[in-house]
């Protein structure tokens, strides 16, 4: 896979978590950021693995999913460029709560857990942005749980059709 080098500071600046940082701050963080490439279908990480850092999608798409014991998959999200993936274990030290796979050739800006935590200590506004993003994801996941638990298949199908019709 041969690809043009990306501007890591530019990628970081377009990410919701880091959008409020100045150019010097972004360049400082970019110096601690590593570029990782994934082919279509390649796992970024698996559920239960230890989390060693933050993944920010620079290019491509990433599907976040859980797999049941019998092999059924529940897609939790499809993340696009500019989005971060699995922020929570970067802070709580726990394992990844779900798996992530590249759905097309994907480039990741990766910041080690240690470096990102240190950066948040120096820039508390970043930690507040992380809380905002994690909170929004939690609300979306609660909606998925509610839909799966309380809605009939017919009601879920109607909801999907309405969403598709709206755009």
Secondary structure layout plus pairing:
Blueprint: H1 8-13, H2 23-30, E1 33-38, E2 43-45, E3 53-59, E4 62-67, E5 73-79, E6 84-85, H3 88-92, E7 99-102, E8 106-112, H4 113-122, H5 124-150, H6 153-166
Antiparallel strand pairs: 1-8, 2-7, 3-6, 3-8, 4-5, 4-7
Helix pairs in contact: 4-5
Residues in helix, %: 40-55%
Strand order of the largest sheet: 1-8-3-6
Runs in which pLDDT lies below 50 for 5 or more consecutive residues are none
Query: H/E series, N to C?
Result: HHEEEEEEHEEHHH
Strand content: 25-35%
Gross geometry: globular
Number of strands: 8
Q: What gyration radius follows from the Cα positions, in whole Å?
A: 17 Å
Biggest sheet statistics: 4 strands, antiparallel
Mean pLDDT: 88
N-to-C terminal Cα separation, in Å?
A: 34 Å
Q: How many H/I helical runs?
A: 6
Summing up helix and strand content along with how strands pair, one would put the structural category as alpha+beta
Descriptive account of the structure:
- The structure is a single chain.
- The chain has 167 residues and is of the alpha+beta class.
- The two termini are 34 Å apart.
- A hairpin with a 5-residue loop joins strand 4 and strand 5.
- Strands 1-8-3-6 form a 4-stranded antiparallel sheet.
- The protein contains 6 helices and 8 strands; from the N terminus they run ααββββββαββααα.
- Helix 4 crosses helix 5 (124-150).
């Amino acid at each position: 896979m041969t690809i043009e080098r990306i501007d890591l500071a530019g990628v970081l600046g377009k990410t919701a978590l880091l959008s409020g940082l100045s150019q010097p701050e972004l360049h400082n963080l970019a110096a601690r950021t590593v570029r990782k490439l994934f082919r279509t279908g390649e796992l970024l990480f698996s559920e239960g693995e230890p989390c060693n850092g933050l993944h920010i999608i620079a290019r491509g798409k990433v599907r976040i999913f859980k797999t049941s014991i019998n092999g059924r998959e529940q897609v939790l999200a499809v993340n696009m460029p500019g989005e971060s993936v699995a922020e929570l274990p970067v802070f709580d030290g726990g394992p990844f709560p779900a798996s992530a796979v590249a759905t097309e050739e994907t480039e990741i800006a990766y910041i080690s857990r240690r470096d990102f935590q240190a950066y948040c200590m120096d820039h508390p506004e970043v930690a507040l942005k992380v809380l905002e993003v994690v909170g929004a994801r939690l609300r979306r996941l609660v909606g998925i749980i509610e839909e799966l638990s309380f809605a009939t298949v017919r009601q879920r199908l109607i909801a999907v059709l309405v969403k598709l019709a709206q755009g």
